Amino acid sequence: MTIRWFEYTECIYLYKNGQVTERRGYEGRLSLNTQEMERGNVSLRMKNTQESDSAVYICQVIHGEQEEETVMYLDVKEGSMLRGLKDYLQHETQVDKLMRETSADELESYKERLEEMKQTLKEFEEKIKEKDSILEEMSKELKDTETRLEKTTKQLNENIKHILEKDTQLDEMTQQMREKERQLEHSVKEEEKTNRQLENSVKEEEKTKRQLENSVKEVEETKRQLETLGKDLQDKNTQVENLRVLLQEKDLQLEDRNHRLGEKDKLLEEREGELKDWRQELEEKDKLLEKKEKQLKEKDIQVEDVNKENDKLAQQVCDVKTEMERLRRETSTQMTGELDTVT
Question: Locate the Ig-like domain: which residues (predicted)?
Answer without folding.
Answer: 1-72
